[in-house]
Amino acid sequence: MNYIMLAIAILTEVFATTAMKQSEGFTRLPWAAATILGYAVAFYCLSLTLRTIPTGVAYAIWSGAGIVLISAAAWVFQGQKLDTAAVIGMALIISGVVVMNTFSSASAH
Predict the structure, then answer these.
(1) Does pLDDT of 63 surpass 80?
(2) Which of 50, 53, 70, 88 is paired with 43 by a 20 to 30 Å CA distance?
(3) Which domain holds residue 37?
(4) Share of the chain above pLDDT 90, in %
């Protein structure tokens, strides 16, 4: 259940960040409201996750998955270009999160 809450936190944060771009500096109120609501849900779910998952581990997963998913959403929905260096960098981020969760004693809970 803890990782489900973390997944919800990540997905709503990705939604909120994507909505923030669409809000055009908070001048488009529906998108601005979606941004605020998305972040509120994301941080609430993250706070529940931190009850049982170590902070460093949760944040590594949160930030790593968030970077990759936001980049993918920007590529699909906003036409952002991802060059080879960006893709390699994201692969390294994912690898780092996997190594941390697989081999580090920091992930023990």
Answers:
(1) yes
(2) 88
(3) 2-107
(4) 75
What is the arithmetic mean of pLDDT over 43-70?
93
How far apart (Å, rounded) are the C-alpha atoms in residues 9 and 85?
A: 27
d(CA 82, CA 42): 26
As for how many domains the chain has, the answer is: 1
Helices 29-49, 55-78: axis angle to 10 degrees equals: 150
- 3-state secondary structure labels for all residues of 43-103: HHHHHHHCCCCCHHHHHHHHHHHHHHHHHHHHHHHHCCCCCHHHHHHHHHHHHHHHHHHHH
Write down how long the chain is. Answer: 109
User: The pTM is what?
Assistant: 0.85
Q: Output the CA torsion sign for 38, 44, 50, 55.
A: positive
